[in-house]
Amino acid sequence: MALIKSTGTPPTLNHNRFYPAWDRTTALRTFSFEGREYTVTIDGDKRVAYGEGLLTGYRHYDTKGVKPAFAFGFGKSYTDFRFSALKVKNESSKGRPRYIVNFDVTNTGSINGKEVAQIYVRPVDAKVFRPYKELKGFEKKIIRAGETVRFEIELTDEAFAYYKTSIHDFGYDPGKFEILVGNASDNILLRKTVSVK
């Protein structure tokens, strides 16, 4: 099995750089990333094991305060959109969180376009290590020029949960969570804090 040996957290890698090594039984590659040296061992099974844990992709960038060239969800449109009127309705029952997230997206440009709205959840005071925020819902809609469309996305207990080793299952810790709405991981346009019991 392939291993990464380093003292730091390795970045997500482009697998293509390792293809030439795979015709050999074992290969070593050393590379630099953000001022650190990493050594990757690749054996004949063509698998690479990464050591990022929870911090993959946008989770790493958010948690470590890194500004990527193109954030998760980045996309160029031929028109512009405005997000507004965020409402988060609490429809929870005892021990079963359920929130209905509603907001408007207006096409402020002169041509029709598509927009992907994303909802992230951030624990305000996490009891264990968690990424800064996690994507928990999204929806894509065609919006005509000048039109406003209402989005509605449901968040259940799964949106607030993480894997708890003490119970060997997913669960959540009651507390405050921030609901973040945007169109890319680095472009949060609306936010609201809820108390999950």
Question: How would you characterize this protein structure?
Answer:
The chain is mainly β and 197 residues long. 4% of the residues lie in helices and 48% in strands. The protein has a 4-stranded antiparallel sheet, with no helix packed on it. A hairpin with a 2-residue loop joins strand 2 and strand 3. The longest helix has 7 residues. The N terminus is likely disordered.
Main sheet specs? 4 strands, antiparallel
Structural class: mainly beta
Order of helices and strands: EEEHEEEEEEEEE
- Count of individual beta strands: 12
The proportion of strand residues reads over 45%
User: Helicity level, as a percent range?
Assistant: under 10%
Quick take:
The protein has 197 residues and is mainly beta. The protein contains one helix and twelve strands.
Keywords:
197 residues, mainly beta, three-stranded antiparallel sheet, 1 helix, 12 strands, disordered N terminus
Write the layout of secondary structure elements.
Layout: E1 3-5, E2 26-33, E3 36-43, H1 58-64, E4 81-90, E5 98-107, E6 113-123, E7 134-143, E8 148-156, E9 162-164, E10 169-171, E11 175-184, E12 187-196
Antiparallel strand pairs: 1-3, 2-3, 4-5, 5-8, 6-7, 6-11, 9-10, 11-12
